Every structure is written in structure tokens, then in C-alpha cells.
Amino acid sequence: MDCFDPRTSAVTRFPTTAWTMRLSCRSSSASFALAWTNFRNGWAGHLRGGYDAFLHDKRAWVGDYALFMAIKDAHDGKPWYDWPNELRHRESGATALAMHRLDLTDSVGAYLFGQFLFFRQWQELRQHAQERGIRLIGDVPIFVSPDSTDVWAYPQGYILDANLRPRIVAGVPPDYFSRTGQLWGNPHYDWDEMRRKRVRVVGRPSCATLELVDLVRIDHFRGFCAAWQVPAGESTAVNGKWVPGPAGELFDRLRADLGGLPVIAEDLGEITPDVYALRDALGLPGMKVLQFAFDKPTNPFLPHNYPANCIAYTGTHDNDTTHGWWATAPENEKQFYRKYTDRDGSDIAWDLIRLAWASVADLAITPLQDVLYLGTEARMNLPGVGQGYWRWRMPAGALDEKRLERLTEVTEVFGRVREQVK
Question: Which long-range contacts does 168-171 make (Cβ < 8 Å, 24+ apart)?
Fold first, then answer.
């Protein structure tokens, strides 16, 4: 998630996915256990009305989620497709599920209560931010985990085999980040089934996330035009194929549900003209990443080629930090950069911040690591690598007055103070 102040354009990145906020927010601490016990036993009566309203408002998912997590705990954390047959197949196992719901009443209730507390506290935080002119950006991934409430609760919406495991999995072909592509392992949607049942499996996370944030970046936007499908069991993503998706049909329904499309299209990677056409037809801003820019004057990531309706980034959570990128950039890119900017690269992170802020892009974003001028040791993520990333945290006091003053200055100079943007 990005948290940014339009008055200063200061941006902080927090690693989240569409359902992170509802899948991993229950605390296992002694304080939470005591709070749940007291609430269950009738204390904190002032919360009861809000709790009941929460369960009603979130009834589309919260009951399934709580039961899913309670059963998962009872089976030592095993993925749902390794549970006993009567628990995997919800329709044929309705009686067994009802018995488990009864047996696990306390655990189910604890998960429901944890979600209630999280949403209540988050809305207080969001209101606090809004009162200070701060808006929040969230991420919605195009796919979900195979071991998720979403797939367990509605397996018909995904391309699964008779044992409810993915027949094909998601990924991307070889690209800038990986010679063998990225094998994500997520199940693909059965779009035909969703059309027949008019199911909003993808729209639901977007709607839910927008209850928590003000703007959503939809990851892997190109997958709505065509997605890379890899047979399950492959060790890399090389042997896949592009399969058409729902394109504008899905977004028309989403616009109707939301009353608009407060969405950023993640349009990076191997992009075909139909993806840009869909993005532009929907009026969505795309992403412009400066670290990808410096090879030739016609590169669309160079600021002089930007449309106003875009988001400019120095780099994203998937890139190295700008300092780390520059340390290993090919010499031809460095030479082009020096000609383009008339700068020598000695202050590379702040050079790119200035380029992004000076561009016509409606919004400019930089990872906090670039503001702090950190190297590869602070990289947030390396696509295709499952372990060892998403661990960087800003040390206390790192964002000092000197850096804040510099960020304020560049924001004012390029008219990105909120009062100037109006």
C-alpha cells in the first residue's frame, strides 16, 4: 500500500495484497485472547451494536473466512485442498461443515471479532489521515492464492481438477526480471463460469479494498486482456500460453458497482496494443517507471513522452532501489541518462525524484528507500523469488529534517503542493 500526502508528495510503501487485511489481522497475543473472552462473556456491551452491524455488512465473506481459518487451525495449518474430503467439497459436505462450525464456535467467533476490531481501528486511522489531507493507495492482485477462502468457498469459479487443485497456474513469460518467467502458482479464473453465474469474484476484492483505501492499483492489469497460463507441475513459466480474459466487460460491471473506477492500471511487462487500448478506453492512469527509461528518445518511460493521465515512479516495489539500480546499470543507459538529464549520476536517487516530480504525470511516487538514498540492501522485492524479501523497514529517525526539507522543496518547485494542484 502507498500512503502519500498530496501536500508534500511524501510516499511510504507497505506490502499488502487484496485480502491481506482480512486474512492476517487477527492477533494471537494474550491481550487479544483476553479481549475476545471478555466480549464473548458479555463485557464491552458498547461494542455489540457495531459488531452485529459489521457481521451483517460483511456477510458476503466474513463468515466463510472465519470458518476457513478455524478449520485450518484445527488441521495444523494444512491447505484446504489437503483437508478431509467432506471439508474440501463444501456442497457435498454441508453436514460436516455445519458440525465443524458448531464444534469450532469459539475459534470462529474469535476470527470474526478480530476482523471487527481491525476494521474498526483501520477506519479510525483512515479518518485521521483524511482529516490531514492524506489519501491511501491499496493494491489488488489479479489472482488469489490457491489456499484461500476465495477458492475454497467457490471452486467452480476457478480452473481446477477433480481433486480441487489447479489444472493451470498463473505467471508471466520471460521478461526484464527473469529469463525463465515468473511462475506464481495461482489458479486461473473460469471466466465462462463467472459469466454464466454473474459472479463478481474479481470485483469483490476491489470493492472491499476501496472500503479501506481511496485508490486501488490493480496488479497485472494486462491479464484482463490475456493472461499467461502454465500447465500445473511445470518448474518454470516458459511453457505457457496467452489466453484471452474478460477485458472491458468486467470493468463495466465494476464501474457500476463502485459508481466509478478509482483505479491505477499496472501496465508493465510484456504489453500488447489491446492492453493500452483497454486502459485508455476506461480512462485509467498507467505507470511510468524511470528506471526503465534510459535507452532511446522514444522510450515511453521518458518524461517528455508522458501523457498527463499517468503515475510517475522512480522505481516500484519490484525494482532495486534507484541507488542499487545505478550501481549495476549498463554503461549505455548511464551515458544516455547523462545526456538526457545533464547530470552525472552522483545524486541519482534525487535526480530521478526531480524528474518524476517535474513531469506532467498527475501523480508522482517514490519509494521511501530513494528518499533515504539507500542501496540494494534495502530492496523491497525481487520478482520470482519467494523468500528473503518484503522485510525492509524504515529505521526510526531515518526520515530526518534535512530529507523532509529537500522533499518539501522539490514538491513546491514543481507545483505538487495540494493548494497549487487545485
Answer: 168/229, 168/230, 168/231, 168/232, 169/229, 169/230, 169/231, 169/232, 169/234, 170/142, 170/143, 170/223, 170/227, 170/228, 170/229, 170/230, 171/228, 171/230, 171/237, 171/240
